[in-house]
Design brief:
With about 200 residues, the protein is mainly α. It contains nine helices and two strands, in the order βαααααααβαα. The chain has a two-stranded antiparallel ribbon with strand order 1-2. The two termini are about 20 Å apart. The mean pLDDT is about 90.
Amino acid sequence: MTHTQKITARSLLLGFLDLRSLSPDFGEWTEKEFSDNPPRLLRLRQLKAMFRAFDLPWKPSSFTSGAFIRLEHPRYAPLLSRLKAEYEEMFPDAPSERIESRELPMFFEILFDYRMSLNESLSFPANFLEASELSLLAVRKTMALNKVIRSKVVAVEKLLAELICPEGTSFSVRQLVRDYDYPDVDLIDIDIEWE
């Protein structure tokens, strides 16, 4: 990983989704549980460092429900205003006065659950090592569709990232290593070594 790479709230989100797809049980998300699995252990350490950097409580199950969102904090006002405008555009005859910051955790949870549900589909066809002609055609078609879905799902990821950090803060890897004990490793290399 390069020290100039920027780590954003979206990086945190994608790291969380990645570890959750490898280990859905939050009870396993401990150094002890992952001590015999370097790929998961390093992902956990990176994720914990990002949580510290973004000043989020380390409570993975609460994170998925948006419990980290501080409703009284004015940092959400611009986002809430924009969401109200989008709502009014989508539903011109419905009142938007009732849209309040207390709804943001549920908004986060719905979008997070949707994004999590896409993980398995977007990782298809991870297990195909060889295929017949028609199987290859089917795999290519799903890969093409997944490419389109990935390009569109970025909008959901950006909204989730904005709820995680409305200010759009980013950190260099160097800063995360220095200040938050972030493991500066290439997870792809670690995964290949582990297999």
